[in-house]
Sequence to fold (283 residues):
Amino acid sequence: MVNSRFLKSHLVPVLMVLVIAGSITGIFLFLKCTKDMSKAAALPVFSTFIHNGSGIAGGDIIGNPKAGKKDLPIYNVKTDEKKVALTFDAAWGAEDTIQILDILDKYNVKVTFFMTGGWVDSFPDMVKEIYSRGHDLGNHSQNHKEMSKLSTDKQIEEIKAVGDTVKELTGYDVYLFRPPYGDYNSTLVNTCYSMNYYPIQWNVDSLDWKDYGVESIIKTVTQHKALCNGSIILMHNGAKYTAQALETVITSLQEQGYELVPVSQLIIKENFHMDQTGCQIAD
Fold:
């Protein structure tokens, strides 16, 4: 038989050590689990497309582009926030692009550049520079054609070519499309949504492409009758006076209380409808 004194002097301390060790292990595991749960709770939740083809035109974007009998692109956005989006169509040269980017940096303003395939092919380093400075990269078609005159297959080709090239250059998936000349039809709107692109127009045209001068651009934008919360403003890089007018356009809009944001931060990504003016409205 085992001596009881032996049990007390040898086994009891061993058991106590095991109990204490088990408790410490349990506490450690509990704290680790709590920490892991806390980490998981702190992770950002990203909104993504469902990717089941249940959206507009068989794509993944949930909304309704139809107003009356016609499908419309987004001209502006209904919002109570005093925000507007500056956009630049890039289809010509690039001589003033760095100057434009430097001015935007000076005022910490992010914008959207809608680029043609020809411009992307001609200025790949500029595409990378725009992206590296935190601006939206938008699609302006491969060949700057009137999109309403093209078949659905040709529309897809025009859009896909630019998206593929930009993806190859930057790794960025483009999802904003502006039709050249603002030319569109319902077919194009649905083609865009079927490819998970938002079709983007504008409701404030700077008319910088008409070369009327610096003061004309400033006045046209900042005193435009359509300028309001949610406006999308059209400008161009490569136009004669745009870079010279840009700083005053920015400061004048800011003095009116507007925050300048890229289109990606202005539009409603899902659950929206359109009114007959092309204003995008949350459901």
Notes: The radius of gyration is 28 Å. The chain has two domains: 1-43, 62-282.
